[in-house]
Design a protein that fits this description.
Layout lengths: L1 E4 L5 H12 L6 E4 L2 H7 L4 E4 L26 H14 L3 E6 L1 H12 L1 H10 L7 H5 L4 E6 L15 H22 L2 E6 L6 H10 L3 E3 L9 H14 L5 E6 L12 H12 L3 E5 L11 H20 L7 E6 L2 E6 H16 L3 H7 L2 H15 L10 E7 L6 H14 L3 E5 L2 H6 L26 E2 L7 H10 L4 E6 L1 H12 L11 E5 L15 H17 L7 E7 L6 H10 L3 E3 L7 H14 L6 E7 L8 H11 L5 E6 L11 H24 L1 E2 L2 E2 L7 E7 L2 E6 L7 E2 L4 E2 L8 H7 L6 H7 L14
Parallel strand pairs: 1-2, 1-4, 4-5, 5-10, 6-8, 6-9, 7-8, 12-13, 12-14, 12-15, 15-16, 16-23, 17-19, 17-20, 18-19
Antiparallel strand pairs: 2-3, 10-11, 21-22, 23-24, 25-26
Helix pairs in contact: 1-11, 2-3, 3-5, 4-12, 7-8, 8-14, 8-23, 11-20, 12-13, 14-23, 15-23, 19-20, 20-24, 24-25
GO cellular component, one term: membrane
Cofactor: Mg(2+)
Protein name: 6-phosphofructokinase
Length: about 750
């Protein structure tokens, strides 16, 4: 079996080998060095891989096996050489990781495989015997590795999230100097044919303008841009940020460059303007937690596709749809990707946006609302209050900023409630509405600028209702964790007694624990996950050059094992103990035995994660003592309790973008709900659907009534009864080389096998 890769995050190699081994194959796994060039050259460029040789790769960026453009493979003669090299080694399955060009080449290679074999026989390079019969067909599966996220059919390509991390790190650093010197900064990011990086970066940093190839600015954009920058300065903003994709064009197809924009701003406005071209820094660095998990899941699905393939199976590409890894017809996806380019060339820019997919379209619509629409002169006479509840987390401020700006755009007066329900009960509500500029710059700030407490409203409902009436609050945006959800339920239950709380209510999940019912993801969880992952990387690196060592790391999450599980996948853990998956002393013994066997190989480090409330008896200290005692003479142990560092830090690009879209969508929903609930000159909302959780389910943001979610809630342990991520836990054991059959993984993911043989359009 071979993995021929043009671009690859290295964790997929680990997955591919361990999956084959776990299926009981005589695991002959080969890596092709330098992509198609290595395939053509053969020899040492196609080398065998073992489980040990691809261990400790997870945190490495780029591709360990190399990548190269290959002109030889574009010719039939070159492809015949590649076929000859594969036939000699008995390789009939190829996993290609790259962009649409690499995947198109792979499909062409597969299509003409029979003809290439016939040519080899005629040329005398292959005997017409058993060897030819064994190599009679070639199975192909593709994975998309591209920082541009320019391949249609998948929500995210491998590498995109890591590139966004690099961009936002630079933007945050530049913002500091821009504010100090009152400057305008123009940042050029990659994206020759796709503006995803530029668009999401603009949303994540609150940029004043973004230029992308899919949607060139209207005629007269120069005047519009200058007016916008002047307007921002007149409101008190000390900086302006403009994001430019390298492929940005005007309506007539001419390039729009960062130097051109700089000259415009300097000449017309006289602003102190600087240009920064990020270049290849976006391709480098350590992979983010999301990219590690994405690569691992896609690697599993890719090898599964190869194992299940028959000579009649069409080439497929492994894609991400919401939180599911799915298989789609390769050439259909390639064709839609080409259709985007064709639409842009024909000036059909609205079509290009739609062809990019729902996620891209939603990002673009949110950006337009927040950046290009001025507040109306006529007010709605509606007061919307915003508050944070529960423990602080990164991304809360981004959600507040987005909600406030969207509310102002709708003509509402936005009120800030400090210190949660406790503050609402004690009148800690801003008398003057929050202004547009007062929340500028909040996107990249961690924690909670409004202040937050875990206090629930139940015991002080009288005071809460009185202050809702006093400050004339017509709708409520509650941003927080499980306390926000429970607090929202208590407000709904209090409607029978207190008419003042009969107002539309929306809860936006924001907690590192990711334990709010009604949503697959919570704001803040991605930042915490990246913090844990990077810390585990450093912890493992601290043992470099020492004797064999196992680290026991305790994570947050309450009773929810999301952080422990996902961090285990991202950091390459040997086990992750969680409350949802019960374990006994025999399981602990089996894990110790497994590590003892592992440490007898060339692998020198082990990692065990433990959710803080996974078991009241098998504590972190107990597990540390057990591993220390049983590992004597083979490995020693160290333990780390990460604590509140998981709640701090600046938000990741995902959390900023997610929070921005959630905040904007919540206020748009409230605006419509207020119209429905306006009766006899006042707001009265007492139906179940007037108090909802806004959550992400698979690929869409949905509003679900708080009351309807009670049946799916374990209130004692503060977790949902059904959690999607439990189904991918077997991957961690597969990667850790446990003796586990893939039937376990297949059974757990039956619900996730969607559209494997259907069309992309369906």
């Amino acid at each position: 079996r071979a993995a021929a890769c043009r671009l690859v995050t290295t964790e997929t190699l680990t997955v591919a080998f361990t999956v084959l081994a776990s299926r009981g194959f005589i695991a002959l796994m080969n890596c092709v060095i330098c992509g198609y060039q290595g395939l053509v050259d053969g020899g040492e460029n196609i080398c065998s891989a073992s489980w040990e040789s691809v261990s400790m790769m997870l945190q490495l960026g780029g591709t360990v096996i190399g990548s190269a453009r290959c002109k030889d493979f574009q010719t039939r003669e070159g492809r015949m050489k590649a076929a000859c090299n594969l036939v000699k080694l008995g390789i009939t399955n190829l996993c290609v990781i790259g962009g649409d060009g690499s995947l198109t080449g792979a499909n062409e290679f597969r299509t003409e495989w029979s003809g290439l074999l016939a040519d080899l026989v005629r040329a005398g390079k292959q005997s017409d015997s058993e060897e030819a019969k064994k190599s009679s067909h070639l199975n192909i599966v593709g994975m998309v590795g591209s920082i541009d996220n320019d391949f249609c059919g998948t929500d995210m390509t491998i590498g995109t999230d890591s590139a966004l991390h690099r961009i936002i790190e630079v933007v945050d650093a530049i913002t500091t100097t821009a504010q100090s010197h009152q400057r305008t900064f123009i940042l050029e990011v990659m994206g020759r044919h796709c503006g995803y990086l530029a668009l999401v970066s603009a949303l994540a940093c609150g940029a004043d303008w973004v230029f992308i190839p899919e949607m060139p600015p209207d005629e007269g954009w120069e005047d519009h841009l200058c007016r916008r920058l002047m307007d921002q300065r007149s409101r008190g903003s000390r900086l302006n940020v403009i994001i430019v994709a390298e492929g940005a064009i005007s309506r007539d197809g001419k390039p729009i460059t960062s130097d051109q924009i700089k000259k415009l701003v300097t000449d017309r406005l006289g602003f102190d303007t600087r240009t920064t071209i990020l270049g290849h820094v976006q391709r480098g660095g350590t992979p983010s937690a999301f990219d590690r998990i994405l690569g691992s899941r896609m690697g599993v699905e890719a090898v599964m596709a190869l194992l299940e393939a028959t000579p009649d199976t069409p080439a497929c590409v492994v894609s991400l749809s919401g939180n599911q890894a799915v298989r789609l017809p390769l050439m259909e996806c390639v064709q839609v990707t080409k259709d985007v380019t064709a639409a842009m060339a024909q000036g059909k820019f609205e079509d290009a946006i739609k062809l990019r997919g729902r996620s891209f379209e939603n990002n673009w619509n949110t950006y337009k609302l927040l950046a290009h629409i001025n507040p109306p002169d006529v007010k709605s006479n509606i007061n919307v209050a915003v508050m944070n509840i529960g423990a602080p987390c990164a991304g809360m401020n981004a959600a507040v900023r987005s909600a406030v700006k969207m509310g102002i755009i709708q003509g509402h007066s936005m009120l800030a409630v400090h210190d949660g329900f406790d503050g609402l009960a004690h009148g800690q509500v801003t008398i003057e509405p929050i202004t547009w500029t007062s929340v500028s710059g909040w996107t990249g700030i961690g924690g909670s600028m409004l202040g937050t407490k875990r206090t629930l409203p139940g015991k002080m409902m009288e005071e809460v209702s009185l202050n809702i009436a006093k400050y004339n609050i017509h709708a409520l945006v509650i941003i927080g964790g499980f306390e926000a959800y429970v607090g929202g339920l208590e407000l709904v239950q209090a409607r029978e007694k207190y008419e003042e709380v009969c107002i539309p209510i929306v809860v936006i999940p924001a907690t590192v624990s990711n334990n709010v019912p009604g949503s697959d993801f919570s704001i803040g969880a991605d930042t915490a996950l990246n913090t844990i992952t990077s810390t585990c990387d450093r912890i493992k690196q601290s043992a470099a050059g020492t004797k064999r060592r196992v680290f026991i790391v305790e994570t947050m999450g309450g009773y929810c094992g999301y952080l422990a599980t996902m961090a285990g996948l991202a950091a390459g853990a040997d086990a992750a103990y969680i409350f949802e998956e019960k374990f006994t002393i025999r399981d602990l013994e089996a894990n110790v035995e497994h590590l003892l066997g592992k440490m007898k190989t060339t692998v020198k480090r082990g990692l065990i994660l433990r959710n803080e409330n996974c078991n009241s008896n098998y504590t972190t200290d107990f597990i540390f003592s057990l591993y220390s005692e049983e590992g004597k003479g083979v490995f020693d142990c160290r333990k780390n309790v990460l604590g509140h560092m998981q709640q701090g830090g600046t938000p990741t690009p995902f959390d900023r973008n997610f929070a921005t879209k959630m905040g904007a969508k919540s206020v748009l929903w409230l605006t419509e709900k207020l119209k429905e609930c306006y009766r006899h000159g006042r707001i009265f909302a007492n139906t179940p659907d007037s108090a909802c959780v806004l959550g992400m389910k698979k690929r869409a943001l949905n509003f679900q009534p708080l009351a309807d979610l009670k049946a799916d809630t374990d209130f004692e342990h503060r977790i949902p009864k059904t959690q999607w991520w439990l189904k991918i836990r077997p991957i961690m054991k597969i990667l850790a080389k446990y003796d586990i059959k893939l039937d376990t993984y297949e059974h757990a993911n039956l619900e996730h096998v969607v559209n494997k043989t259907g069309s992309l359009k369906k």
